[in-house]
Write a structure and sequence with these properties.
The complex is a heterodimer of chains A (356) and B (260).
Chain A (H helix, E strand, L loop, with lengths): L3 E10 L2 E11 L4 E5 L6 H9 L6 E6 L2 E2 L10 E4 L11 H11 L4 H14 L15 H14 L4 E5 L7 H18 L2 E6 L2 H7 L2 E6 L2 E6 L1 H6 L4 H6 L4 E9 L4 E4 L2 E4 L12 E6 L5 E2 L7 E12 L3 E7 L4 E7 L12 E6 L5 E3 L5
Parallel strand pairs in A: 3-8, 3-9, 6-7, 7-8
Antiparallel strand pairs in A: 1-2, 1-4, 4-5, 9-10, 11-12, 11-14, 12-13, 14-20, 15-19, 16-17, 16-19, 17-18
Helix pairs in contact in A: 2-3, 2-4, 3-4
Chain B lengths: L5 H25 L10 H8 L1 H34 L5 H13 L2 H12 L11 H29 L3 H10 L4 H12 L1 H17 L2 H5 L5 H11 L3 H24 L8
Helix pairs in contact in B: 1-12, 2-12, 3-6, 3-9, 3-11, 4-6, 6-9, 7-8, 9-12, 11-12
Membrane topology (chain B): Multi-pass membrane protein
Pfam family, one (chain B): BPD_transp_1
Subcellular location (chain B): Cell inner membrane; Cell membrane
Chain lengths: 356, 260
């Protein structure tokens, strides 16, 4: 049985249902990220696990025990908030010690645990400082130490990197992951940033409109998105609308040009509309021989981005973007120039659901 | 274009004259008790008067009790309204403003009618229970100031996240209120407390009609029977108020965890 088990959970606020019958099982020591846009219900799920919201229906179990109706302070859960939430009137050491004092640990034990936590976050020198004397990144590390000090069953991270600048975000996400691995603590991380989700997680749970769209490893989510939403939300993606010309052989007509998938289109009939997706990194310029697909179009836009040149190629109705490396000894292509784009059969992602 | 500072200065000077001239005149008059020379004789007489000491001590004690009851009532209320019942905020704000609209004399007549010795709750039946009634009356009277000070302080703190952080660390509601919320709104609570102190020390109507030996009725008594001492008392009362204001500033600048 999973360590954290969320079963058919629903949450309704007035007339709005934010979470719609979500099932999620998280194994002990696993790092799972809830990824999705604002309002998709990811934070509500996290808050229900923490006990700050009560589910309208469904059950939450931790280590086999039903905690659905337990108060937050009875759940032994560590939480890190976007806004740090350090107690401004307490020093860093007092902040970390707070949960231990609540649990009535003895003084020596508290002092030793505070020291241990400060060393874990590599900030042993800030024990006597107040939160306002720390940078945003330091405050969030202290918040992490405070949450971990009580040895929680589960660590919940509610967009902890969102308030930080880009450079600190990258270093802190590595630190959080390292600490999580070191302690082996089961962790739920909420974010709307797909790069954070892909880089940190064992599994990513992509959510939209209160439902789970897809749950899988970062590799699966990025390379094999099951729905149009996942494909468009995770990474940059070119989505093309087409019609099936031969389902058994996986032939699709896009803007009057035929492309072939590596696998047949099971259940698709000739003339069916569908959407296919292509990652920019799967596309190359030039005609390829053999079994690759070729699409002819015209260069619509050229954006020079430094190390990379982003080229937008227009076919009749649709367009794709692809990136090439900047080569100082070769001039970038020009707008209006005819171009052939090639990609492998296996690079075509056929998306579930009808195209828009 | 550089703006002229002429009119702001005129306004400031007019305001300063309006407030300071009567005060300076009162102070100057209070020094004239001995003929032909300025002295602090009036202050010596007032401060040595057992009536002054007794009434001031009584009012200070009542003020202290008022502050304790006021904090115990207002802090949890404002906290819960902000955290759990934000829709009730206009209702609570209206209620806390009522003492500014309803005159003290109306309140005290209402009390005398409700709690007289032949009523179902005869709070005016003994001196101690009347003192209790006086404390409750002052809590009501100071409500607009105490509630606003506490509510403003609560708005400057992210109480929802702090509460949730404390809850996730296993803390119970009383501990959250005492150890997390109260220290972070300390300046607001103390502002409310000092304002309450200043109001209670000078209050006359309710204390007089409830026949309690407070500082307000004492000042009125002295004012009606003496010449120089009332002026000295007025200056002392101002000094107490200013000391309270100074303490608010002092406390605000020495709060742990605040930027200085």
């Amino acid at each position: 049985m999973a360590f954290l088990s969320i079963e058919r959970i629903t949450k309704t606020f007035g007339a709005t249902t934010t979470v719609k019958g979500v099932d999620l099982a998280v194994e002990r020591g696993e790092f799972v990220t809830l990824l999705g846009p604002s309002g998709c219900g990811k934070t509500t799920i996290l808050r229900m696990v923490a006990g700050f919201e009560t589910p309208s229906s469904g059950t939450i179990r931790i280590d086999g025990k039903d905690v659905t109706d337990l108060k937050p302070h009875q759940r032994k859960i560590g939480m890190v908030f976007q806004a740090y939430a350090l107690f401004p009137n307490m020093t860093v050491a007092d902040n970390i010690a707070f949960g231990l004092k609540v649990a009535r640990k003895n003084g020596a034990e508290i002092a030793s645990r505070v020291k241990e936590m400060l060393e874990l976050i590599k900030l042993p020198q800030v024990a006597e400082r107040y939160p306002y004397q720390l940078s945003g990144g330091q405050q969030q590390r202290v918040a992490l130490a405070r949450a971990l000090a009580i040895k929680p069953q589960i660590l919940l991270l509610d967009e902890p990197l969102s308030a930080l600048d880009a450079k600190i975000r990258v270093s802190l996400r590595d630190e959080i992951r390292a600490v999580q691995r070191q302690l082996g603590i089961t962790t739920i991380f909420v974010t709307h940033d797909q790069e954070e989700a892909l880089s940190m997680s064992d599994r990513v749970c992509v959510m939209s409109e209160g439902r789970i769209e897809q749950l899988g490893t970062p590799f699966e989510i990025y390379n094999y998105p099951k729905t149009r939403f996942v494909a468009s939300f995770v990474g940059t993606l070119n989505i093309l609308s087409g019609r099936v010309s031969d389902g058994a052989e996986g032939r699709i007509v896009v803007d009057g040009q035929e492309i072939v998938t590596s696998r047949g289109l099971n259940g698709a009939s000739t003339g069916d509309a569908l959407a296919v997706a292509l990652r920019p990194e799967a596309l190359s310029i030039g005609r390829a021989n053999g079994s690759s697909n070729n699409l002819e179009g015209t260069i619509d836009e050229v954006h020079f981005l430094g190390s990379v040149v982003r080229i937008r190629v227009r076919f009749k109705e649709s367009a794709v973007s692809l990136d090439t490396f900047n080569r100082p000894n070769a001039a970038p292509p020009e707008r209006g120039q005819p171009i052939t784009v090639n990609f492998g059969r296996e690079d075509i992602l056929v998306l579930e659901g009808a195209p828009n | 274009m550089k703006q002229s500072r002429f009119f702001p200065w005129i306004g400031f000077i007019f305001g300063a004259i309006y407030f300071l001239v009567p005060l300076i005149a009162t102070f100057e008059f209070s020094l004239r008790m001995q003929r032909g020379t300025y002295s602090f004789k009036a202050y010596q007489v007032v401060l040595a008067d057992p009536g002054f000491q007794a009434s001031f001590s009584y009012s200070a004690l009542i003020a202290l009790l008022t502050i304790i009851v006021g904090i115990a009532l207002v802090v949890p209320t404002a906290y819960l309204v902000q955290l759990k019942l934000p829709k009730l905020r206009p209702v609570v704000e209206f209620m806390t403003l009522l003492p500014l609209v309803v005159p003290a004399i109306v309140i005290v007549f209402g009390y005398l009618r409700m709690y007289n010795s032949s009523s179902w709750l005869p709070l005016t039946g003994s001196a101690r229970s009347t003192d209790l009634l006086l404390v409750f009356a002052y809590v009501t009277l100071s409500l607009p100031y105490m509630y606003r000070s506490v509510d403003t302080a609560l708005r400057t703190v992210d109480i929802r996240t702090l509460t949730e952080a404390a809850q996730s660390l296993g803390s119970s509601w009383p501990r959250i209120l005492i150890q997390v919320i109260l220290p972070n709104i300390r300046v607001g609570v103390l502002s409310g407390a000092f304002l309450t102190f200043a109001i209670v020390i000078g209050e006359f109507t309710i204390a007089s009609l409830l026949n309690r030996p407070a500082f307000g009725p004492y000042m009125q008594l002295i004012g009606a029977n003496r010449a120089y001492e009332p002026a000295a008392l007025a200056v002392i009362a101002f000094a107490i108020t200013w000391a309270c204001m100074g303490l608010i500033q002092l406390v605000a600048s020495f709060s742990p965890g605040q930027k200085r």
